[in-house]
Design brief:
The protein is α+β, with helices and mostly antiparallel strands and about 100 residues long. It has one domain: SUI1-like domain (Translation Initiation Factor Eif1, 2-Layer Sandwich). The chain has 3 helices and 5 strands. The chain starts with 16 loop residues before the first helix and ends with a strand.
Length: about 100
Amino acid sequence: MADICPKCGLPKELCVCETIAKESQRIKVVAEKRKYGKLITVVYGIDKKEIDIRELAKKLKSKFACGGTVKDNTIELQGNHVGAVRDELIKLGFSKESISTSK
């Protein structure tokens, strides 16, 4: 017997909760200057109740071969990857219209 998702009522294999959550996010990707003039890329606005933010950070760190962390519902990546992070989030299923960037 298949496990049933408590939110959408579909079997776990067909669950659409994460897809719906990705489309409803309002994400902002910015480059910030930190201590000693180092640039970091910060991803704001991801709801960790709906999406596994740690898993997303792990994928981004692996993709861009950089260090990073998750702090207070934000993902911080070492280096300036604003455009590339935006493109990667779109590939991972986030809506293009929901992602804003600034450099």
